[in-house]
Amino acid sequence: MPIKWRLAVLMADREIDYKKLAQMTGLHPVTVSKHKNIRVMPERLDRDTLEKYCKALNCQPGDLLTYVSDKSKDQTL
């Protein structure tokens, strides 16, 4: 997948677990846990959810998403 999801990385950097992030965002803990445990961008991510993560983690949307070109992926194989 060319777009990586970095929620787990940002949570680790800020030492926030999924329960705390759920409290901060108002999202259900199961939703946050699912989003934390995936490495590729979710198939569907509401703008409202993205805004909640950005507000709680004090970050920009680009901090949560990273584009990895196919060329970079081929070089690591």
From TrEMBL:
Protein name (database record): Putative transcriptional regulator
Keywords, alphabetical: Plasmid
Presence of the UniProt keyword Thylakoid in the record: no
GO terms for MF: DNA binding
Organism name: Nostoc flagelliforme CCNUN1
Xref: InterPro entries: Cro/C1-type_HTH, Lambda_DNA-bd_dom_sf
Location of the HTH cro/C1-type domain: 6-70
Residues in the signal sequence: none
